[in-house]
Amino acid sequence: MPIDFSAPANRKTYAGREVDASWRDAVRSLLDPAGLDVADVGSGAGIYARAWAELGAASVVGVDSSPVMLSTAEEEARGDDRLRFVLGDAAATTLPDASADVVFERALVHHVPDLDAVVTEARRLLRPGGHCLVQDRTADDVRQAASARHPRGYLFEVFPRLLDVELARRPDAEALARLMREAGLDVTTHVLWEVRAVHPHRDTYLEEIRRRKGRSILHELDDREVARLVDVLAARLPVGEPVVETDRWTLWTGVLPS
Ligand SMILES: C[S@@+](CC[C@H](N)C(=O)[O-])C[C@H]1O[C@@H](n2cnc3c(N)ncnc32)[C@H](O)[C@@H]1O
Prior knowledge:
Helices cover 36% and strands 24% of the residues.
């Protein structure tokens, strides 16, 4: 069953994680965030909204359709007055026209039914010269081989049916680029290997899998299947070493000409 982002049980699922340097470096290689106004659409618990502020953004508004996610994001913002969070849909954010230098959408677009409407809305929010930055996994990203650094790959070895779930919902790189171009943006795409987390011990990683934390695909498995996955991962991952959990993503950058 797909994840319910509004279920109180999931309120912390996208919280409690710090953004890694691999993500910060990738963003800084594309643009200079200092002094910019950022709209983080599908902001979840605000992990990346906080990262944009730490990179020097003047303001960050997080938009999410889940009140539960927004309340966690507000708690975690710890009173930083550069951050605010509003309830809204990615296709109708309620934010003003031309109010953002950056529209950022991470791990959002594979959850939305009408990508065209989401791209049109992102374009509406952008100022001339602004960047729309979409980060998501394509079919190629999902199919990356399993390894100790890419343990997500084991999911599909153990439960091949999950690959069908992923392939049905993941954006096609060229189709999304075309929608962005049709909206008037100059588009480039990049591959990003982002360290999602460094788990000091294998067991801390396994505990997150057991709790289905921060990985919506695990909501497609029942409790017995999750337990089986944990057993397989325990057998494959080295004992006594940290798990450097790394995922491959695609970054679509669309610049609105000045
Ligand atoms: C996988 S989480 C990603 C959260 C955050 N961007 C991150 O990377 O940590 C997806 C988020 O998108 C939100 N979401 C899903 N569909 C949405 C929509 N149509 N409009 C706005 N937010 C949406 C969910 O509530 C959830 O918080």
